[in-house]
Each structure stands twice: as structure tokens, then as C-alpha cells.
Design brief:
Elements lengths: L1 H10 L2 H17 L10 H18 L1 H4 L16 H20 L2 H12 L4 H8 L3 H19 L10
Helix pairs in contact: 1-2, 1-3, 2-3, 6-8, 7-8
């Protein structure tokens, strides 16, 4: 499920994300001997998923599709009024996240949705941990700018 969510954050299509994950598992089985064991197998699969997602984003097929999906719900709520407000916030936040550049979007998703540490993300993406922290900070700033003035959102609290 984690790989599916990860692929989805890039391609924004559940069907395409499922295809990517299937391709990743097929390649992992086909090229089992290529796994060197430098990192965990989980890290290996995550890297393969990210690479395959980038391949898809560079493809002509992707360039012909439009973005129509949003990220899944973030919060649970109790009252109908709160549900309505949170639904609106979630939709706007999801849209704002999808509008981020992929290098920022992947950090946000891995950190907040998949609960990985900055060190784990750095290993997955093969970049320094400081770069992860910088991208996370910039992504937060960009999200804040996109969401300023949104009803029900208070950044000073």
C-alpha cells in the first residue's frame, strides 16, 4: 500500500499508480540478482517506484493526461459543520500539494503521509538529509502561501 501511495503522489492516477507498482514488483523479481543489499529491500522498492514514476511523468502518455484526483482525507471529525469545514480544507490542501513541484511534493508525502524521518527520506531519494530538510521547509512555505486567506485556516495558532 505504501508503494501505491508513493506512486500516486507522482502520477495522480490510481490506475497508473497500480500499474507502476506492478511493474516495480515484476522488475524486482526479474532482477533479483541486481539487489546489492547496500540498503534494505524496502528502500530498494521505494527507489524503484520513484524512478518508474519519473519515467512515466517523462512519457508522452502522461503529457496527454490531465490532473483530476486529489490526495485522500487527512483528518477525522465529529460534527457535520466540522466535517464540512475539514472537507473543504482537505480538498484545498490536496490541490495545493498536487501543485507543488515533484521534488517538494515527494518530501511532503513521505514525511507527513508515510511518517518517514528526514534521514529515511534522504536514503530513499539518495540526497543529503540537509537537502530533505530544506525542501521540507520550502514546501511548507509554498503551501502556506497557497493557503493564506483560506476560510478556517489559521497559521498563527
Amino acid at each position: 500500500m505504501m508503494l501505491l501511495k508513493l506512486a500516486y503522489t507522482y502520477v495522480k492516477s490510481r490506475a497508473m499508480a497500480e500499474d507502476i507498482v506492478q511493474d516495480v514488483f515484476e522488475k524486482a523479481i526479474e532482477k533479483e540478482s541486481a539487489f546489492r543489499g547496500d540498503a534494505s529491500y524496502k528502500t530498494y522498492l521505494i527507489r524503484m517506484t520513484i524512478n518508474r514514476s519519473y519515467d512515466y511523468l517523462r512519457s508522452w502518455k502522461y503529457k496527454q493526461l490531465s490532473i483530476t484526483n486529489t490526495i485522500a482525507q487527512l483528518f477525522n471529525s465529529e460534527t457535520p459543520e466540522k466535517n464540512a469545514i475539514l472537507k473543504d480544507i482537505k480538498a484545498q490542501l490536496g490541490i495545493a500539494i498536487l501543485k507543488l513541484k515533484p521534488k517538494y511534493r515527494e518530501i511532503i508525502v513521505l514525511y507527513y503521509y508515510e511518517d518517514f524521518t528526514t534521514l529515511e527520506i534522504a536514503k530513499f531519494l539518495n540526497i543529503p538529509e540537509g537537502t530533505v530538510k530544506t525542501r521540507l521547509k520550502r514546501a511548507r512555505e509554498q503551501l502556506k502561501q497557497k493557503l493564506v486567506g483560506m476560510k478556517g485556516v489559521d497559521f498563527d495558532a
